[in-house]
Specification:
mainly beta; Immunoglobulin-like; 3 domains; six-stranded mixed β-sheet; 46 strands; globular
Amino acid sequence: MVMTRRLLLLCLTAAAFTMQPVQQVAAQPTALRDDIQVRNMLSLNRGIFRIVKDRRDNTLYTLAGNGSISRIERGENAVGETIAQGKANPNTGERNWTILNSAEGLPAEVPIEAIRAAAEALSLRANDPTDGDQLHILSTQNGNIVKPPNLVVATPQEHGLDFPKAIFFGADGTLYVVLDLEKANAPNAVAVASSADHGFTDVQGFDIGPDGTFYIGATTRDNGRVNNIVKGVFDPSTGQRTWTTIAITEPLPSGTKNHPHPGIVVSPDGRFVYLNSGSRTDHGEAAPAGGYPEGTREVPLSSAILRVPSDGEGIVIPADEEALKASGYFFADGFRNAFDMAFAGNGDLFAGDNGPDSDLPDALMWVRQGHHFGFPWRMGGIDNPQTFPDYDPTVDNYILFTNSGAKSAGLFHNDPTFPPPPMVFSDPVINLGPDADRFRDPETGEARDASDLGLAVKTFTPHSSPLGIVFDVDNALSPEFRGDGFVLRTGDDCCSNLNSFDDPDQDLLHLDLEKVGDNYQARVTRIVEGFRGPMDTAIINNKIYVVERSGSRGLWEITLPAGPVTAVEETGDGAVPANSALAQNYPNPFNPGTVIPFQINLGDRVELVVYDLAGQKIRTLVNGQLAAGSYTADWDGRDQSGVVVASGVYLYQLHAGTHRETRKLTLLR
């Protein structure tokens, strides 16, 4: 075998994405820079695959593999000091309860300092001075207040606080219950949909369109694997979603190494949904299938990214090669398992591709229509050794250091009937280092660091399993990160083959991408380490949210340095406004530019965004921290990419702390 025929241009292929049981060890993610903060928000239920944001209001949602969808309440609309006041009726002895909020003012008779002292002391016991000092006890289990031994005198439904912290009696016998603010304002997950709503129990793809429509990618079985794209449209009159099937594939036959992971992504304009069909082999080995020619490996519907219109209904994507090409639904080919896809701010689509069970790199692809990205002939920018006529697996250093399922099953073998490449391939993104760029030397078997040697890989250390790609599309980050990409590596948590490369994984990588010719190159840097099975990310302003599938299954908030606010001018006399408000733009209608006045009464992170009437984000005018004051922002009638937008009515929305306000403006060309 002539091993030197393979180029030492490596790519981002990762180990087979097969979930394996793992030891439940709590994660301790740690920032690798002083200007990055890591916070644990909550622990999630088992089986979480995705986290996605609603682009309209930045609400986060998670998806579990069983089809359950939950909304993450992040505690942004935090409640302040809250007290339940229970006054006894002198005739009946029953208490009449009133909820008091200190920010709105308290009645003079409320002994607030004594109540606060009781709350500080976590007083779960209090004596009623008007009832012979009768002892009352607050239960930490259910929130009931009882007279010993077991007489319940008030339940949470009666006193009105779900998270009571302490109790206190006034001199007149009034009972006060104090709210536990930490618990009341803690993030939590609220179920909003399940398989009972949309009808699917094997769901791994999830995205939200610019108008708030939910899209899921689901797998069913019908004489083979069927990929389904389904959408749920919210009806505000009923508070429910109506679920319809946009498209299904005809069945894909089972193979030797199936990847039933229908990742999806919605285009920024909401017009299209992209689907990862998944391969049916590990590296293109023969995998017989009924109804297909002898020696079939991949089939036309597999190892591809498909694209369908988001307003489609009942589309059947054909399995026949000619019919599939004629349908217009076949977008790009040559992916082993593009489980995660994301659009950059310039509209380019990227996909993370998990590589084979051999030590070929994992890849990040710039996905373009009509391109073939190599699988199974070329993976991570390296020719598949099994395509060589003299291939001998006993001397293949790409498999001698792994303990993979494909190797154990004998899927690496001399394969003289391997078909020739169908076309010229497009290579993955080039990793310039310094991180995640280890590779296997095909001659010596040594694990080496590419950037240390002045080499480059395409794109990541083998078996990294890149997931959770996100981009700073709003340019909210500091100049070092602005507009850049980020990706997780779940690595050893799923695949157990990365350890032979001595490359730390289960981390968050920063991708400083640069377009060079017909490809991208990236400087890749680790910025957070120590996750347990990180699965997916979402980005809101300067915060990245990470969900894990292992350990304590955490939802983590990663705060990155924020960029300065631009295109905004402070106005007024410096006085602090009494309230936050968004004023009407002027002139209105306008051409070519307009001024938008607004004010905020508290220093906070501020967003001012222009949307079209469909809810699609057109331009972010302000995104950063502002002090209390009055301001104006200019809009020149262009979108985020600098393209002049059409005449029409647009919405502009101010989001400052808990204040959210929307107005309309009119552009006339």
